[in-house]
Specification:
- The complex is a heterodimer of chains A (225) and B (174).
- Chain A has 7 helices and 8 strands, in the order H-H-H-H-H-H-E-E-E-E-E-E-E-E-H.
- In chain A, strands 1, 2, 3, 4, 5, 6, 7 and 8 form an 8-stranded antiparallel β-sheet that branches.
- In chain A, helix 1 crosses helix 3.
- Chain A is flat and about 65 Å long.
- Chain B is mostly helical.
- In chain B, helix 2 packs across helix 3, helix 2 runs parallel beside helix 4 and helix 7 crosses helix 8.
- The chains are: A alpha+beta (225), B mainly alpha (174).
- The interface between A and B is large, with 49 and 61 residues.
């Protein structure tokens, strides 16, 4: 560990040091005046900051409640707003009739959405995907069945603990309702009840699902050839 | 109960417990006069997204992100000057006695004023971590900054905060 008292103390107090590094630093600060001062000052500052926490006034709670109740709920967006206005208009015209009747997702897609939401467990298998995709870390690979299709669910987490699951199958995935073809190498993109889906046909048919657009794009675009 | 009413109630049940968090962030982001407007706008924007089918998995970081964006766009729109509140803060109950509550309120006022002496990025990072309880990774995501940068801002801000208040205490004692 490089001797940079400020940086080391920040990492230590921020919980970034784990195991041996943490113990090593704790032994080090006993003898190092500079590092001890940094940690001590950081701790005192944290304690000061925490003592400044305030409660929202009750009147504000009531004001917020009243304001929200005057907002009309929006209808769910039927299309994933990916392209520009022209693309949106063309897609709207082509699929206009689809809005008249609610359309069901293909059963494989529906099963993938349910599996993601419920964090359905499967039989663990050895992963064929990388242990890391950029900042995403692989935590589990399990065999699952989605609407009659065999797939491997690879679960990745980002540094804040949000999950993205990549469902890999030998068969092509059907196209989700309201999906749009992307322009960055993906087969299609869709949004369904707050979840984002990106489908890739190469290197193997993969369906990337998550509720954070950034994470889903990161996984998909790091994975594709 | 109508569908519309249920939609509002579900949203408020899920998000109102995070009101203190949003309030603490707004208090360190905009002028005292704008705090309640920012909190209200945060909630109405959040409800629009929620009812459009985009409810989040984690409510707290989602609301903090909306609050940060709302506050910053207000500052851009109005070129609002950010300054330490110069008059007694009406949201902190005044008290005639010197009970623990009164002392705690005086301390809160002092901490609040000291936080406003920090650069905005340090003030926001400290607010999110120490007052709102987010992890460094969550703050990194909310603010769009690398985790190492967040930790450096928080640490430098905490040091300044400790020094500012210690200086004030020693000034009072002498």
């Amino acid at each position: 560990m490089k001797h940079d008292p400020e940086r080391n103390a920040a990492a230590y107090l921020g919980g970034l040091l784990s195991g041996a590094r943490r113990r090593m630093f704790e032994r080090h600060i006993v003898d190092c005046e500079d590092c001890w001062r940094e940690v001590d000052l950081g701790r005192r500052g944290r304690s000061v900051a925490e003592s400044g926490r305030e409660m929202a006034p009750q009147a504000l709670r009531e004001r917020v409640r009243a304001a929200v109740e005057t907002v009309r709920p929006r209808r769910r967006r039927p299309l994933w707003a990916l392209g520009g206005a022209a693309v949106g208009l063309v897609a709207l015209a082509v699929t206009g009739m689809m809005f008249l009747l609610p359309e069901r997702e293909p059963r494989e897609i529906e099963a993938a959405l349910v599996a993601f939401r419920n964090r359905s467990a499967g039989v663990s298998v050895e992963s064929r995907l990388p242990a890391r995709l950029a900042e995403l870390r692989l935590t589990d690979s399990a065999r699952v069945q989605l609407g009659g299709v065999d797939a491997i669910a690879h679960t990745y987490v980002d540094p804040s603990g949000d999950e993205v699951v990549i469902y890999v199958s030998d068969e092509q995935w059907p196209v989700a309702v309201g999906a749009e073809h992307g322009n960055a190498g993906e087969t299609w993109l869709a949004e369904e009840d707050g979840l984002v889906l990106i489908c890739l046909d190469e290197p193997t048919p993969s369906l990337v699902v998550g509720d954070d657009l950034h994470d889903v794009e990161l996984a998909a675009y790091t994975l594709r050839p | 109960m109508s569908m519309r009413k249920r939609s509002h109630d579900e949203f408020l049940d899920a998000t109102l417990p995070a009101l203190d968090l949003v309030y603490n962030l707004a208090r360190r982001l905009v002028n005292p006069d704008d705090v309640e407007d920012v909190v209200q706008e945060t909630y109405t924007r959040a409800f629009e997204a929620w009812s459009a089918g985009r409810p989040p998995r984690k409510v707290e970081p989602w609301l903090a992100t909306i609050c940060l964006n709302t506050g910053r766009s207000l500052l851009r729109r109005a070129s609002t000057r950010r300054e330490v509140p110069s008059e007694p803060d009406p949201t902190l109950a005044a008290s005639d006695d010197v009970s623990d509550d009164a002392i705690a309120n005086m301390r809160k006022r002092a901490v609040h004023a000291s936080l406003w002496e920090l650069p905005e990025e340090q003030r926001i990072a400290i607010t999110l971590m120490d007052l709102d309880g987010f992890t460094a990774s969550q703050v990194a995501k909310i603010t769009g900054s690398p985790r190492g940068t967040v930790l450096a801002r928080v640490h430098r801000g905490r040091k300044k905060l400790a020094r500012i208040l210690e200086k004030e205490v020693s000034h009072v004692e002498t």
